[in-house]
Queue: 3 jobs
Job 1
Amino acid sequence: MFPMVTGFINYGQQTVRAARYIGQSFMITLSHANHLPVTIQYPYEKLITSERFRGRIHFEFDKCIVCEVCVRVCPIDLPVID
């Protein structure tokens, strides 16, 4: 084939491929439009943790100033400060 015809065929294939990718990305965008937002406006709203939550609070004993933030933040009321 002539180089010019081959160039038009490649251009057409690339155009079809680009249109397919744009269509796929548009479908993904539309599928995500139905979901509710999951952002929580902390500290005004707090996430409700389950009773089986096993997270740990990072605590450095040497830097503790007894401000009791760890007591207020703990979801299971574990720390007790005397």
Note: The first helix runs from residue 3 to 32.
Job 2
Amino acid sequence: MSVLTPSEIAALGKVGVLFGGRSAEREISILSGSGVLQALKSKGIDAHPFDPAERSLAELEAQRFDRVFIALHGRFGEDGSLQGALELLGIPYTGSGVMASSVGMDKITTKIVWLAHGVPTPKYAVIDDNSDLAHLDRIVAELGLPLIVKPPLEGSTIGITKVTRKEDFQAAVDLAHKYDKVVLAEQFIEGREFSVPLLGSGPEARALPIVEIVAPQGNYDYQNKYFTDDTQYHCPAPLDAATTGAIQRHVENAYRALGCEGWSRIDVLLRASDNAPFLLEVNTSPGMTTHSLVPMAARAEGTSYEDLCVQILRSASLKQGQVG
């Protein structure tokens, strides 16, 4: 772990670590933010916690933070709404700007952009409140079984169902509808599961070492993701150089296509039948818990958790530019 000089600490100023929030991922955000806060303090940085679910934007402005580290996940923290408020308040922040955060939060819009840029992603269908059984039957005929049903605006595997029988499709849609008005049905890709963190912006953005995820019975759900030690992680992933390079090129293209900045994490499936990669989604404010994959990939390159937090914090900026 590197040591910051007094001038480097002073240059970062007063820092707010935003975590908690009002999304379904609040619990994980608190774990992420608490870790980030402790890491920054351990480096001598003047860092302070701030929970937007408990304190107002007026209070955020009154704190006169020089920059903020966004450790919020999901709605009202990762979806562009907070980013817009920070732009208006003139407070530099970590991660992507308003547009990339908003697009990245919506898995359907993400797919539309990726397909336009030649990024491989599973075939999909959209299900709204007016969809009937005939529509669901057509989706099964098009995508096949099994298929994945998920709310497009949630993360952390919340509301996701793997449908293996047609008669279970409606129940899966009903579960996803509890979170979103529109539901995403996605072709199931049988194969290995990976996640690829990225750092940087524009042409300087780069993929970190790939993480392979091996979950119990292949079920990488909320519990296995955050609260058990049964899931295995291999980093760098045991892949040949050609496959590693291909996956990293795809995720870098996908990251730039969405206009992401600062840092993100993109989830990937590698189809067993032909080793073809398929990109699933982007997380523009990834987890920073003890089980999280961005710190894991950084460690594989020799970067400590604390140094990673400082590196991300240094990238904080206003994306729209100063006016007046």
Note: The mean pLDDT is 92.
Job 3
Amino acid sequence: MSHGDGDHERFAHYVQKDKIMASALDGTPVVALCGKVWVPGRDPKKYPVCPMCKEIYESMGPGGDKGKDKGGKDSGKK
């Protein structure tokens, strides 16, 4: 699990959409599909998608993505 170090910082990550909203309201950290933990704060559209998050998301298949949304990405960059 990463806490804001290494390659995870260079990517946008997949996170449950409701967790992104909660974090925006109260500042609690979120956990990406790949295990990265951070408080979102940057525009995820400016970064490539984390390959590990993408692989996990795609392996979930139809119906396995409840609460997941490609719009629910965040880069974690500060």
Note: Residues 1-5, 65-71 have pLDDT under 50 and may be disordered.
